[in-house]
Amino acid sequence: NKRVKIKELLENDYIDRDVVIMGWVRTKRSNKNVSFIALNDGSSIKNYQIVADPNILSEEILKKTTTGACLKVFGKIVPSQGAGQQNELVAAKIDILGEADPEKYPLQPKKHSLEFLREIAHLRVRTNTFGAVFRVRHALAFAVHKYFNDKGFFYIHTPIITASDAEGAGETFKVTTLDLKNPPISEDGKIDFKSDFFEKETNLTVSGQLEGELAAMGLGDIYTFGPTFRAENSNTARHLAEFWMIEPEMAFYDAEDNQDLAEDFLKYVISYALENCKDDIAFLDNRAAEEDSTKKADQRSEMGLLERLQFVVENKFQRLTYTEAIDVLKNSNYNKKQKFQYLIEDWGVDLQSEHERYLVEKHFKKPVILTDYPKEIKAFYMRQNDDGKTVAAMDILFPGIGEIVGGSQREERLDLLSKRMEEMNIPTEEMWWYLDTRRFGSTPHAGFGLGFERLVLFVTGMGNIRDVIAFPRTPGHAEF
Ligand code: 4AD
Ligand code: MG
User: Which stretches make up the Aminoacyl-transfer RNA synthetases class-II family profile domain (predicted)?
Assistant: First the structure.
């Protein structure tokens, strides 16, 4: 007989059938006559109950059946004796695939802190919380591809190693094959990259956008979904050095089309998770509520996780310009009573996450699409508005998260783009390929970037971005 996954057993009628299941022991309860083993194989948040009769199974096998051990169980599915339980498996034979010495196995059948689990990232996927998080993460990734595929977008694989810095923020990780202990030095005293692998300075990509734009200027609608890297030294619960980004780019879209797409897309992927991850989200909803109850009254969320997800899907996002937002913030009680760390005084300042969260959580109480930022605080490629001061940028701000999406209509006019690049010290000669799209068959186009982990953070209700990616990369942390 063939192995059956626990999810399959839970969703179908297997009564009286002989099956084989495999998985890891979560708990074992024993009395003189019988042992109950809760087995989990990752296919579902739910464990499957195995009834083990010491008259049938050897004492040695039952002794090795400890939390964390991996088992192969042969037996028959029967209706459960226990009240309110589903079916269970009566074991005829158990093979121990892998023992887990209870003295040494770090995961005990109790609640561990997330900080502790972060230290054992190689094992934490065996817990209920991380099982749920990674199943939801998978569903969201699948929904991203489904959404764009159904809309006729093409998935483009943009390079990981590049010679450009799309955001122009200088937060890149260098890539080199040079011996940095003894690098070749050119006449001007600097490292000579001519003998480096690519014969020039290269880095890990911070964004696939520029290459995405090239593709959109031929394929029409494209999206990227890949890893991006930022050497920003922000040790926060919202930043990773290595994160995944989804970047659609659309020819013939203007700023408003871009906003409409972003809102529709976010609602779609969240609905998809709600429909397809019911058990996991219910578990995470409980978890978040427990976490919330340990907080001070004024720091508790107004809505539970499930309620918050439904609310976002059902309500129109608030759209307003940066200039309007500055007015709201300036006149807010938080500003007047100096509750912001950075007080809002003048137009032109960059918004901090405390301001973004004020707008979303205290003022509008719904997701916000902020548009038309001052050009000085945004990237070189954003389309300049007629006022000469602002660009056609958009940031989407989410409750509990802050910025989840950043995007814009792109500057498609060669003269304006070249001038802006020069003003911002972006090397126009090296970016000849980017400017070529404006030289030949240029057209209005727009796009945005969704930080995938910030989306997973929102949908799982977890509090720290390190807990929604399997192997987080943050300052000082890259164990394996
Ligand atoms: O706002 P950002 O920097 O925009 C871009 O990279 C554009 N090229 C996107 C585009 O228009 N195609 O980053 C986009 C999103 C942010 O809104 C945020 O969700 C996420 O990427 N992000 C990060 N997520 C985790 N860790 C970090 N260090 C992040 N930096 C940005
Ligand atoms: Mg941004």
Answer: 134-472
Ligand 1 lined by 134 (C-beta under 6 Å): no
106-163 pLDDT tens trace: 998 888 999 999 999 999 999 999 999 999 999 999 999 999 999 999 999 999 999 9
Is there a single domain that holds both residue 373 and residue 282?
Answer: yes
CA angle centred on 231, ends 342 and 452, rounded to 5°: 80
Per-residue pLDDT at 169:
81
Half-sphere exposure of 248 (CA within 13 A, CB side): 27
Q: Is the pLDDT of residue 334 over 90?
A: yes
Ligand 1 centroid–CA 222 distance in Å is 18
Ligand 1 in reach of 285 Cβ (< 6 A): no
Residue 114 lies in a domain: no
Sheet holding 161-162, edge to edge: 161-162, 202-204, 174-175
Question: Does 356 sit in the ligand 1 pocket, CB within 6 Å?
Answer: no
Give the pLDDT mean for 296-311.
91
Place of tokens 């918004």: 351
pLDDT in tens, 123-137: 999 999 999 999 999
Same domain, 247 and 311: yes
Do β-strands 35-40 and 161-162 pair in parallel, antiparallel, or remain unpaired?
A: unpaired
The residue count for the chain: 480
* Domain count of the fold of the chain: 2
- The answer to whether the CB of 405 is under 6 A from ligand 1 is yes
ipTM: 0.99
Q: Are residues 19 and 137 in the same domain?
A: no
**Is the residue at 477 inside a domain?**
no
Ligand 1: residue whose CA is nearest its atom 7: 449
Spacing, Cα 396 to ligand 2 middle (Å): 9
Domain that holds residue 98: 6-106
